[in-house]
Amino acid sequence: MQSLKSNALEPTRFDLRQMSGRQKVLRLLPVYGIPILTVVLIIVFSLVLPRTFPTMLNLRSILGDKAIIALLSLAAMVPMMAGRIDLTVGYGIVLWHILAIGLQTQFGFEWWQAAIIVLLLGALLGLFNGLLVELAQIDSFIATLGTGTVIYAIALWYTEGRQIIGSLPADFTGLYTTQVFGLPIAAFYVVIVAFVLWIVTEYLPIGRYLYAIGANPRAAALNGIPTRRYVMGAFITSGVLTALAGIILAAKLRIGQASVGLEYLLPALVGAFLGSTTIKPGRVNVWGTVAAVAILAVGISGIQQLGGAFFVEPLFNGVTLVLAIGLAGYAQRKRGSVRHKKAAPTPSAATGDDVSRT
User: Fold this and answer.
1) Residues 335, 282: contact at Cβ < 8 Å?
2) Cα 213 to Cα 81: distance, rounded to the nearest angstrom
3) What's the pLDDT at 56?
4) pLDDT for the residue numbered 13
5) Which of 89, 137, 258, 305 is most buried, judging by how many CB atoms fall within 10 Å of its CB?
6) Which residues of the chain have pLDDT under 50?
7) Whole-angstrom Cα distance, residue 302 to residue 52?
């Protein structure tokens, strides 16, 4: 069963060559609407809040706080390319950040050893999710909800409801606290991961195969694409990226607790779904996901500085998720109608056929 379908709606170069300048602007405006709106929001909030919003301190805060969400959104995006969904991006980060700290403070592992173990466990969880979806033929939403609940229970059992605290090396905490060119290093993790995923998804056969599977898995299989292998690989990639986000979260918090992590699930899904409405509308994509996280970060930061209540962020994320899914569905329906119109014969052609037959 498929949880998602993936189709692109962006205009081709051939389409743009046939348009006038005004038509190109009108055609590209919806495609790049979210990046444009992000810039508009930055300008508006900078004018309204000149002392607090357009500052280096606020920029560092936004980049540092939302880097983890951006990584989780990219993690969720990869299975979505293949038409699947991975809810363990929200549950897994709970256990991974706890283990990243517990392996050092309670079992005596070096920080890099603990990080490698967590990454391997993340890959193993992704493999297990892939087996459930592809071999057991369980819908990805149900399968990852089940495994996510189990690993959350493991986190509760491991911590016994208490915090995991201990002395952590500076090299480990530096994974989050280090600054490069005055900016949090966590933001550069996002750029590196996004760039690698962009290369893989846009310029390598792997990306084309995943999009083909997401659009029509049966047709992809008939064309010789090993769908099972690529879907499982997508879940493994998601698991590794989630584990990486958990390690960075551990370096940020310096304590492990099971009550932290689940709040990242909704923003991560919002980022991935909303990202499918921009850059390449109707299809999840890397830079669309990054742009979606950026507009969420800018919007929430500005609203909070204007005096928004503590519940503004979850409200903003929830409403945006509903709108994102609605817009993504609209984009897919619009693409389907465009294809139908292109395939339908024109009245003149039909008349010509009738005349020739007579």
Assistant:
1) yes
2) 8
3) 93
4) 61
5) 89
6) 1-3, 6-8, 346-358
7) 9
pLDDT digits (tens, 9 = 90+) for 165-181: 989 999 999 999 999 99
pTM score: 0.85
Of 133, 136, 160, residue with least CA distance to 145:
133
- Cα dihedral sign, 213-216-218-219: negative
CA separation for the pair 225, 141 (Å, rounded)? 23
Show Cβ contacts of residue 271 under 8 Å, excluding neighbours closer than 6 positions. Answer: 69, 70, 72, 73, 76, 289, 292, 293, 296
Distance CA 265, CA 72 (A): 8
Residue 172 token pair: 């480990």
User: Is-contact 86 79, C-beta < 8 A?
Assistant: yes
